[in-house]
Amino acid sequence: MDENWPEGLRDRLENKKSELSARLERITANLRRGLETDSKERAVQLEDSEVVDALGNEARAELVKVSQAIRSMDAGKYGLCSTCGSAIGAKRIEAYPYAGECIECATMGEEIRARN
Asked: What is the pTM for the complete model shown?
């Protein structure tokens, strides 16, 4: 279903995947560095590590979505909603190229999560 793909979309997704992978490598290296012996400095480093870890979790989640979009392209299913199977709108694809759901299903999912 590539008729709605914006020009250069696959390249954008591949570049985003590379960027996220590099970011995760930097985050992982940052988290693995040794802690200072000074207790005050160590406390600051631990707080920083929590923030860096949260950023890593966000990057990992985004990387999964980008990878899924690329796999969908390879399978010929890109641009189809994973929930209802209808086409994802071209404007949504342009704004959010790794959207897995049409706007209607995504909105419904957000409303359900908000109630829980």
From this structure: 0.74
